Structure prediction request, 191 residues.
Amino acid sequence: MRDDETVDSGGTAAPYPGAGEEGGGAEGAADAGAVTGAPVGDERLERALATERDKHLRLAAEFDNFRKRTARERQEAGSRAQADLVLGLLEALDDIMRFADLDPATVDSATVVQGVGMVEKKMIKSLSGHGLEIVDPSGHPFDPAFHEAVATEPAGTEAEDHLVARVYQPGFVFRGQLLRPARVVVKQWLG
Prediction:
C-alpha cells in the first residue's frame, strides 16, 4: 500500500480518501484535488486568509489614526482653554502695565492703592468665570481638607474652639480641585 492510499471499511486499498466509498461524490473529488496537488480548496483558503489580513491591517491603521486624532483634538482643546484663560487676564495685565508707566511724583499713594484694588477685582472676576473659587474661612470651623493651620490662639469660649480666627493667605479651589489650602490661625479652647 502507498502513502497516499487509505484502507476503506471493506479492507481494500483506495487511492484517496472517499474513493472506496459508495458514490465517492464531490467530497471525494475535492479531497482528490488536495492529494494530487490541484489547488481546489487551498486557493479559497489563501484568498480568505488574505482578505482577513487586509481587514486586520485596515482596522489597525484606522485605530491608529483614531488614537492620533483624539490626542491631537485633546491637545487643541487644552490649548483653547488656556487661550481663553489668558485672554481674560489681558485686561488686568494692561492695567498693571499702565501702573508701571506712572510717574510716582505726580500720583499719590491712595490712587495707586485704589488702582491695584481694581486690578485685583478684575483678575478675580476673570478667574472666577473660569472656575476658580477663593477659600476664605474666617469664622468657620477648621477643616484640614481645605485649611492649613499656621498658628493657634486662645478661644474666648468653648463654642469658639476650632474656629478660624484669621486668614493669613486665602486658599484656592479650581473646579472642585484644591490648588492651595487657606493658611489660617485657629482658635483653641484651653479652659
The first helix runs from residue 25 to 36. The chain has three helices and eight strands.
